[in-house]
Amino acid sequence: MVAALAGYAANAIYTTAFYMATVIEIPKRAISQTSATLIARAFATHNMSEVRTIYQKSALNQYIIGALLLIGVWANLDNIFTIMPKGEVFGTGASVVVWVGLAKLLDMAFGPNSEVIVMSRYYWFNMVTLVLLAILVIISNAYLIPEYGIIGAAYATAISLTLFNLLKWIFVWLTLRIQPFTPAFVVVTIIAASVTFLNTWLPSASNVVVDIMYRSAVISIVYGGLILITRSSEEVEKVVLGVWRRIVAVIGKK
Fold it and tell me: What is the pLDDT along the chain (254 residues), one digit of tens a residue?
């Protein structure tokens, strides 16, 4: 719809920015596939406690990983557009990256709500939400793109995904009495906000590539360290410690 309502040049910028933002949801696909199998097994044995546990852990872990990736992309936006061909043109889509990225992060935070609905006896409701999402996307784009251009398309995406997830969240709560959020979400949100603020104080390196590497390293170490210190996620802790042990073992052999 961007091409039709704002022109092909605007569409090229929006499409590039959109795909830059969708990088953060790549881990969601792997987690969702695993979660779907486990959720189906739990429903088959009528173990709602297990469904709740999988739902909450999947949502939290997706949120932790997605937040780190979004902070990394956000922090390096200027650098990315600097080294990108025609970066001064595509750089006008920076706000699109941020808004779509936030929308994707929120989508990850709500967890595998579609999988929960599909595996339950209310599977039909998932199709209802998809139809409503399509209608909402068309209406919001038709209004916001002529008014705000490509950032309007980003607003439309954010609004549509938010309402889409809110509807499923409310439905799952009313029908199954489970929801994805735990107190750990508050801790992770505070950590993510703090690291985002820290990035604004980091000095810039003279070389763009060096700046990307050092900035990403600082963000990853501080963010990951705080996640481990607060013990926000047992699964993330196991993965990080497992990787660390392997590194130590390899260094020890040398």
Answer: 676 677 788 888 888 999 889 889 888 888 888 899 999 999 999 999 999 999 999 999 999 999 999 999 999 999 999 998 888 888 888 999 999 999 999 999 999 999 999 999 999 999 999 999 999 999 999 999 998 999 999 999 999 999 999 999 999 999 999 999 999 999 999 999 999 999 999 998 889 999 999 999 999 999 999 999 999 998 888 888 887 788 777 776 66
Find how far residue 228's CA is from the centre of its chain.
Answer: 20
Q: Angle of helix 8-21 relative to helix 94-109, nearest 10 degrees?
A: 40
Task: Tokens 């013990």: give the residue.
Answer: 231
Q: What is the pTM of this model?
A: 0.92
Q: Where are the domains of the chain?
A: 2-253
**DSSP labels for the chain?**
-HHHHH-HHHHHHHHHHHHHHGGGGHHHHHHHHHHHHHHHHHHHTT-HHHHHHHHHHHHHHHHHHHHHHHHHHHHTHHHHHHHSTTHHHHGGGHHHHHHHHHHHHHHHHT-SHHHHHHHSTTTHHHHHHHHHHHHHHHHHHHHHHHHHTHHHHHHHHHHHHHHHHHHHHHHHHHHH---S--THHHHHHHHHHHHHHHHHHSPPPSSHHHHHHHHHHHHHHHHHHHHHHHT--HHHHHHHHHHHHHHHHHHHH-
Q: In sequence order, which residues have a C-beta less than 8 Å from that of residue 228 and are 6 or more positions away?
A: 236, 237, 240
Two tokens at 167?
A: 């509807």
